Amino acid sequence: MEHPGVESPGGGSSSSSQEGDEPESPGGPAPEEEEEEEDDGAPAAGAAAYAMMEDCLLKKIEISVSEAEKRTGRNTMNMQETYTAYLVETRAVESQAEGQCSPPDCLWRRYSEFELLRNYLLVNYPHIIVPPLPEKRAEFVWHKLSADNMDPDFVERRRIGLENFLLRVASHPVLCQEKMLNAFLTQEGGWKEMVNETGFQLKADSRLKALNATFRVKNPDRRFTELKHYSDELQSVISHLLRVRARVADRLYGVYKVHGNYGRVFSEWSAIEKEMGDGLQSAGHHMDVYAASIDDILEEEEHYADQLKEYLFYAEALRTVCRKHELLQYELEMAAQDLTLKKQQCEELATGTVRTFSLKGMTSKLFGQETPEQREAKIKVLEVQIHEGEEQLKAKNLESRDFVKSAWADIERFKEQKNHDLKEALISYAVMQISMCKKGIQVWTNAKECFSKM
Predict the structure, then answer these.
(1) What is the secondary structure of 398-435 as a DSSP string?
(2) Contact 81, 74 (CB under 8 A)
(3) Using CA atoms, how far apart are residues 427 and 437, in angstroms rounded to an integer?
(4) CA atoms of 175 and 157, how far apart (whole Å)
(5) Which pLDDT tens digit goes with each residue over 425-450?
(6) Helix, strand or coil for residue 184?
């Protein structure tokens, strides 16, 4: 189906997107211009928000997650637990521009508080691809790397990931305006209570409700269907890439460490050779250095893997937007169906004819027809309900149209971000591999020189 519109039972067509409106999905065709009526010179819905990029929060303050600290405390069940707290620092950009170096504002946050902020954004901005958080526990790791979420190296990478999350949100043209984000960065005490008092959890769509909409919607928007399919494929491809990378890292680790055996053997050999001893000893030293370098190399490589993992998690954020649209479309279709049914009932009462079989019709035949007064009263009730239903359908259509416009504006923004980020990450990864190979060449060149001097 081309678009998620629903034919209004009143005769007019009301849709959430115009025919031919095909915004570009990741890897899809270019969008056509919307043909909906708008004020002269007024931007399309969502465009005004994206014009606020100049007011981006990062233009006003610098944000960093500068350190992580292991702590012990009591949880809600009054049981002792060990957790990691992260120091969030902010500093006004204006003070630095004026030559002042004021100390940054600092506060500590737990990972669960970052989760609470993201959940709040997901509920209140369903049309936006909310940046993901870094993984809570390590996945797709090579076997020598610890999967313990308290491992210092993993905590450090997660610290970088949490900082990246805040920078993503603070640079987003819409999310950066959210007051709860500002409170997260500046108000340590009482922030969680403030968020929970908004009652945002009550507005969250249940998974069962969303699943029901997925299978029961009759006129899905092809663009969102394709986007959901794309997100599934993106997640599959990146997952496979990370698994391949982990296997390569395992084998590379083994190859490098085996070079340490060269060092040991050359050292033992040098002990029994007088003329060749110095050369063998020097070559062995180069091999030992080469073998030891793999730990730092693969730790650096893990940061590039984390960049890929971010887009692995972005795939789920894409699907979240698609599921919200399915739910809106399902509610729109149910409103239209209910309105059609009420109009039919009103017509049957007014004409005295029953077009479809119903239990009420059988009851009337068995126990006699209703009096004109009773029919008139029921018609009046139905007319009120029909009017309310038409208003509700109109509101649902408007909500769906606004969602589609805003969502595709953010999808276009996300597409540009994704293409840029993945390109940079893959180039950096290739440069790192080239550098690593050059080091290997240099080690064997040095060994060759040592052998030549024997």
Answers:
(1) HHHHHHHHHHHHHHHHHHHHHHHHHHHHHHHHHHHHHH
(2) yes
(3) 15
(4) 24
(5) 999 989 988 998 998 999 999 999 99
(6) helix
